[in-house]
Give the backbone structure.
Amino acid sequence: MPTLAPNFAEQTCHINNDTYHYLKTGEDEPEVLLIHGSLCDYRYWRWQLPAFASSVCTLSPSLRGYWPETSSHPNPDFSVQQHALDMRALIETLSPTHPIHILGHSRGALVAMELAELAPERVRSLILADPGFHSSSLPPSHGFQLEAADRLKQGDVEGGLALFIDSVSGENTWARTTGWFKSMVRENADTIISQVLEADKEYDLNRVSKLKCPTLLLGGAESPARYKHILDILELLLPDVRRATIPLATHGMNLANPKAFNKQALAFWEDVSNAESGA
């Protein structure tokens, strides 16, 4: 059974006709749900789970279609909407008695937004780290995804992954990436072939005002400008919002500067708890 750390053994849950693999810290109901982005899985949060474990019971699943429960691609069931439905079912199963904090990164942040709109009563707060989506208010972004998928289909796995990672995190990021991260990304490479099915789907910004829960926007100080533009838009539209920047970090900010990232997340959750209790 794969483990991230000795106390974080992989567990499984069958929901919505699929098997979900996840890590969970502690024996209580989860207080925090971590939602990874493109090309990742529950291993992406390797520097968050140990840091959060002493304060909050944390749930880290691999989304439908990602390692270790990989499926054939393209897969029409692979979508932001389906992943949000699955996350609702997962928290209803594992955290049935109270709402939960949601932390989503990149495409996972869009899943988190979908989930918060779908089941507001289940979401206590949101942390959106460099959310990724397509909007008419932003320059087109799906070209690199389509090209990366084409390279993968032609058997150029390294070329496709390098193009994708460098496009979201900056030039030469793939070449500088650590071995464990490259292994994880390679094991999820085929998900890009399904992801491009929704690459040009526009997110309606009129939906943002429906997200009433407290929200923290996080951006990497060195992330590509596109993510800053998205955060700027969300900051104007969200009803209950605050914002912070993770220094010395690009798009993968929770890995590049986990100390600062973890500090921001834990402080936000504490602030939400204090506000709820009137402290």
User: Anything to note?
Assistant: Confidence is low (pLDDT under 50) at residues 1-6. The radius of gyration is 17 Å. Residues 65 and 71 are 5 Å apart (CA to CA). The beta strands are 11-15, 18-24, 32-35, 58-61, 100-105, 123-129, 215-220, 241-246.
